[in-house]
Amino acid sequence: MTTLDDLPIRDDLRGKTAYGAPQLDVPVQLNTNENPYPPSPGLVDDLARAVRHGAATLNRYPDRDALDLRKDLADYLGHGLTAGQLWAANGSNEIIQQILQAFGGSGRSAMGFEPSYSMHPIITGVTGTRWIDGAREEDFAIDEARAVALIEEHRPDVVFLTSPNNPTGTALPLGVIERILAAAPGMVVVDEAYAEFARAGTPSALSLLPGNPRLIVTRTMSKAFAMAGTRLGYLAADPAVIDALLLVRLPYHLSTLTQAAARVALAHREELLGTVDALRAERDATVDWLRQRGLSVADSDANFVLFGKFPDRHAVWEDILDRGVLIRETGPAGWLRVSIGTGDEMAAFRAALEGVLG
Ligand code: PMP
Fold this sequence. Notes:
Elements: E1 28-29, H1 41-55, H2 67-77, E2 86-89, H3 91-103, E3 109-112, H4 119-126, E4 130-133, H5 144-154, E5 158-162, H6 174-183, E6 187-191, E7 215-220, E8 233-237, H7 239-246, H8 256-267, H9 269-273, H10 276-292, E9 296-297, E10 304-308, H11 313-322, E11 325-326, E12 336-339, H12 343-357
């Protein structure tokens, strides 16, 4: 039997294993930070109608520049943004890949502050870019002065800031982003995949876009928008940044059906984002409950909670799984992450953890 090792694969990929959270068929799935609420029957009908309409032209390529969708995304974000400042792709993972293809690559470097989203270093590596970990503080914050010193020392071509951060839930003050933007010689990417879950008073980096052509803010419809299956990520930046991404994107990367589904979801945003308040309340209740149980819990502005610390976190993860609840073994040693589900799902999680802890 031929194995991967027998193939003339790139040296830097040799020995690596594929990234991905386990996709297991268990009753309660709280491991990939999805929104637990499925689309309503009315939204499903509208999606089906849009797909039917799009299907009639599937012999033709889609709008290569996805202009209508980008206009809808600009309208959603506000901040005076226009379609020319928006770009969309198949999930924000593809957005991140395009950014690194355009601004990273051989002989270049990207810096992030771990623990953070693990795909940042992975896509960095896959694009032949060198990864530099700036590391977060004990409380998962980014120390401004230390970050600036590191950036001045390493002069990375791309800096990733994730706010709210995955897997810790930590939001970054705008002041820290501004200081890093002033110090960084290259592009600064603020990954705001979880922005809609942030509590009031946690402003988006979108407000920093005017006058900052090296700033990119990335978003996704996979989380608060409850459209993970659609695969639609996007970014807002200076129009010159979009010109750069046009050089690396594959022609017709965003299918007719994806564009149509995303536009229907945006038209239904009130309904879809209507679940955010309930998820925030469930998150805060989960944090309180875990703390009452005597556990360490990271403050969260997202739709998940990082808690610990367990001498053998894998055993705890497995024990919870045996009770029908799938959470995520991720983050620093000893910690586990639970995504926020429905009230019933969180009750099942609490019961499972209670059972494990005794
Ligand atoms: N950024 C962060 C911080 C994430 O946590 C995720 C998903 N886990 C993504 C980006 C990618 O999401 P998607 O490709 O579904 O848009």
